[in-house]
Structure formats: structure tokens, C-alpha cells
Amino acid sequence: MKYDVTVIGSGPGGYVAAIRCAQLGMKTAIIERYNVLGGTCLNVGCIPSKALLDSSEHYHNADKRFETHGIGISNLTVNMKQMIKRKNDVVSQTTGGIDFLMKKNKIDVYHGHGSFVNANTISIAKADGKTETIETDKTIIATGSKPIAPAAFNYDKKRIITSTEALNIDKLPKRMAIIGAGVIGLELGSVFARLGTEVEVVEYGDRSIAGMDGDCSKELTRSLKKLGMKFHFKYKVTEVKTTSRSTTLIAEQRDNQKPLEIKADYCLIAIGRYAYTDKLGLENVGIKTDDRGRIETDAHLQTNVPGIYAIGDVVKGAMLAHKAEEEGSFVAEIIAGQQPHIDYNLIPGVVYTWPEVAAVGQTEEQLKAAGIPYKSGKFPMRALGRARASMDIEGMVKILAHKDTDEVLGVHMVGPRVADLIAEAVVAMEFRASAEDIARMSHAHPTYAEAVKEAALAATADRALHM
Ligand code: FAD
Ligand code: NAI
Fold it and tell me: Which of 48, 260, 240 is nearest to 160 (CA)?
């Protein structure tokens, strides 16, 4: 078979790239090493983690908050097997949707491990041991990422686990130790903490969600501590040991080497992910990678080999599904001769804990470091009627605007449904709005979105109305 474009990897980067190529009239193939399409995001990432976050949030509300609403429940139980089954159903409905989209767009799907024979020939090693070869004019590498698991952590997939295994625990653990207070550690940690597991997080840095604004980190850590999660900051985990039923995490204080040992049923390793290019045959075509194993590309996401592109987690930048998707469309349009654009500064970041955290643009720390003059407007969720009605009073919205021009430079939120609210900030910043532009727009009452207007008022002239 000969294709205009072959995409290797069917995650949100790869399948979106394939759809866009097909929409633009190219004969397109997609290769996926697993039997199911959708990549990390749909199978062991975004979708299953959100399904469990939603289920555990329902339980937590029933257990801790319904009574205040005047709703009584007796004999509340957690049925982990059913929770995992529902999660699996959500995953299969979602991956089934990708099968449909491939058919609809007449994209040929190959299941097997793809690797370069040369720049225009790709070999596909199938599960039954057979190999198939296809010819292609252009190739898009979208092979994604895998969890980092250092040898000293003795990752055994049973008791010492990564997010992939954590999403399938069907008996509620009594104790869980987590290495890393990043996005995965906090999202999955909160799933188990809500259900009643004692969760302890060990983090090398000074604070949680390190890349995000310091105020968001403070608010979120406070809120997760209230949920019962314990944090050990400035501790470096050096080793994890296991017996068949339990684990021991060994760490030392970063600055004074004070030792720390935590025993738990499971130890979840959540210290980041690495670009996945195993057995891809990059050496057969001479594709360059950087010091972190990520495929190097130019501004058009083309590798050093003409006609071969790379997108998503396997290249530099945030490891986010929507970033991978944007790059998928971008590359397809570049191949079609168009002139697309991605503003990486406006890719939002979200942590789906409760309260949620969402952000776009620059953090206060980044503005300070760059010496950019800015002003800040902040508004607490607790001052909103909507938040009091729903009992979701934790969090705030912070808008950072240029001190002289009033242009919005960054928006940082902690609170209910801020994962959805951040879209308003992205639109505003895409159109280079000033804080005053947002402040003068009508926001429906009562909504959580009123916090955005109020923060913009506070940033404009320190004139929030309800504070
Ligand atoms: P992937 O989704 O990793 O897909 C790559 C695919 O390529 C895989 O299916 C793989 O099997 C296949 N492949 C690899 N090599 C080959 C080969 N040689 N031949 C054939 N196929 C191959 N991001 C968000 O934006 N929001 C979230 O809420 C979110 N939650 C997450 C939760 C968890 C627990 C995890 C682990 C990640 C989460 N992410 C989230 C990150 C998100 O999943 C990734 O950024 C996204 O999946 C990257 O997409 P991708 O297409 O680059 O790669
Ligand atoms: P992360 O990079 O977010 O956090 C890892 C943390 O582990 C860091 O704070 C780091 O200091 C700490 N750490 C590293 N080594 C350590 C050690 N030896 N001892 C103690 N602490 C140590 O990585 P995480 O949480 O694994 O997530 C990986 C990627 O997945 C993220 O980059 C994110 O983009 C993506 N993701 C996105 C989600 C979302 O968008 N909601 C949800 C889940 C994952």
C-alpha cells in the first residue's frame, strides 16, 4: 500500500492528525501497536482518571456533604469493582468513537508496532508475529510517552505502580504512598483519599504543581490537606522496596538528609513521563533526539529528515492532550501547504482535583523573573452567591495584567468547574483583551464565572464590586 501520509500512534495527537489529513484530501494510514485506538489519553490517562475522579467525588459528597444539604443516606459503601467497571465502560465508549471516526474519514488502521525501514517505508510488526510493510510520502510520529520509573523504585506493576496500574485497583487500599506532588500524584491521590485511603505524598520540590502559579499551589495543597492527604515536601525518594503485600518508601530530606520511611499497601510513582521512541527505527532514518530523548523538530514540527514530522508528548512542550491535538491539526495543515499557527503561551493547563485548578498565560513568578511590570486582581470564590449555594467556597480567580497597557498576561484559577471557566480567559487572551474588556462584559448571575469579572475589576482599578 502507498499513502500520502502515515501517522504512527493513535493518541490525541495521532488520531487528530490523521483526521485532519484525511479532511484535507490526503490518503492516510494510522498505525497503533495496541488493539485499541486512543493512546494514553483515552485508555490510561485523561478519560479513565476523570471517570474515577467523578465517581470518587460523588462518594465524597454523599459521605461528607449531603447531610448539610438535608439529605440523609445510610449504609453508604464503596464498590470498587463497579467503579472500575464503569470507568472501563467510559473508556470503551470513547475509544469506540475513534474507530468510528477513522472509518468515517476513510483512514486505514493498522494494528502493530511501526518502525522506519527508511524515510518512505514503514514496517508494521503484528501481534501474530507477521510483518507488513507500507510505503508513505510523509510520516507523522505521534508515539507519545511512558511513565518514568527509576530502577531503584523497583516498579513491579503490582504494589509499586504507575498511573496505568493505579487506574485498575479494584480493592480499596488502606494506605497509599505517592512519589511526586505533580498532576498525576494529586489527581489520583485525591481519588483514593476521597474514598478513605490514607494518602501520603513525598515531593522533592518546595510545593505541589510546581509549574503553576504559587497561589494556586498554596490553595490546592491546603484543600487536599483538609481532605486528609499528608505532604512531605523537600524529600527525595531514593528507593522503594516491596514484599508481596506491602511497600516501603525510603526518602531523605533534600537539605539536611533527615530520613523518612513510609509503609503502604501501594506506592504510586508519579514523577513525570519520558518520550516514547522504543524500536521506532529512528536510527534507520537519522532522526535526532534531544538530551531528554524527545524528537527534535523545527518550528513546523518537521524533524531533521524532510517529510517526517513529530507531535505531542514525543516532542518538547507540555505533555497535554489538547497540545497534542493542536499539533496534529497544525502538521496536517502544514503538509497541505497552509499556514497554521499555535500560540503555546495560550495552551491552558488544568488539574482535575476538587477544587480544580486551571491556568493560562504567565504565572506571577514568571512575570517577576522576566521583569515585566504587572498588576494583579484577585477574587475569592467564597464571595460568590453561586459558590455558597453549592457549598464550593474554596479557591479564587487571579488575573495578571500589564501594568501600563492593561493587557491580560495570565489567568489563574482554583475552584469549582474552573477547568471549563478557563476557556473564557483563553478567548480573551487570544484576542489580546485588557482586564477592563473582561470587567465590562456581562457575566450571568449567579455563576462561578462572576469571579472572572470581579478579578478583572480588581485588576483594572481595584474596584471589585462584591468584596
Ligand atoms: P499518546 O496518547 O501517548 O499516544 C501514543 C500512541 O502511540 C499510543 O497509543 C502508543 O501505543 C502508540 N505507539 C507508540 N509507539 C508506537 C509504534 N512504534 N508503533 C505503533 N504505535 C505506537 N492530558 C490532558 O490534557 N488532560 C488530562 O486530563 C490528562 N490526564 C492524564 C492522566 C494520566 C493518568 C496520564 C498518564 C496522562 C494524562 N494526560 C492528560 C496527558 C495526555 O494523556 C497526553 O499528553 C496525551 O495522551 C499525549 O498524546 P499523544 O498523542 O502525544 O500520545
Ligand atoms: P509532574 O512532572 O507533573 O510531577 C512530578 C513531580 O515529581 C515533580 O513535582 C517532581 O519534583 C517530583 N519528583 C521527581 N522525582 C522525585 C523523587 N525522587 N522524589 C520525590 N519527588 C520527585 O509529573 P506527573 O504527575 O507524573 O505527570 C506527568 C505528565 O502527565 C505531566 O507532565 C502532565 O502534563 C500530564 N498529565 C496531565 C494531566 C492534566 O492535564 N490534568 C493529568 C495527569 C497527567
Answer: 240
Which ligand places an atom closest to the C-alpha of 41?
1
- CATH number of the domain at 151-271, please? 3.50.50.60
What pLDDT does residue 464 have? 75
Kindly state the cell numbers that stand for 27: 490518503
- Count of helix runs (H) and strand runs (E) in the chain: 15, 22
CATH class of 2-146+274-344: alpha beta
Instruction: Measure 160 CA to ligand 2 centroid, in angstroms.
Output: 16
> Do 200 and 192 contact (CB within 8 A), yes or no?
no
Cβ of 320 below 6 Å from ligand 1: yes
What is the predicted pLDDT for the residue at 155? 98
Distance (Å, whole) CA 272 – CA 295: 17
Name all contacts of 364-370 with Cβ < 8 Å and 24+ positions apart.
364/213, 364/214, 364/215, 364/398, 364/400, 364/410, 364/412, 365/213, 365/214, 366/410, 367/400, 367/409, 367/410
> For the chain, which residues score pLDDT lower than 70?
none
Longest CA–CA separation in the chain, Å:
69
For the record, the C-alpha cell of 467 comes out as 468584596
What is the model's pLDDT at position 465? 83
Per-residue confidence (pLDDT) for residue 462, from 0 to 100 = 75
The predicted pLDDT at position 71 comes to: 98
Reply yes or no on domain 355-459 having CATH 3.40.50.1980: no
Domain ranges of the chain: 2-146+274-344, 151-271, 355-459
Backbone angles phi, psi at 420, to 5 degrees: -90, -35
Collapsing DSSP states into helix, strand and coil, what is residue 82?
helix
Q: Residue whose CA is closest, atom 6 of ligand 2?
A: 180
189 lines ligand 1 (CB under 6 A): no
Domains 151-271 and 355-459 share a fold: no
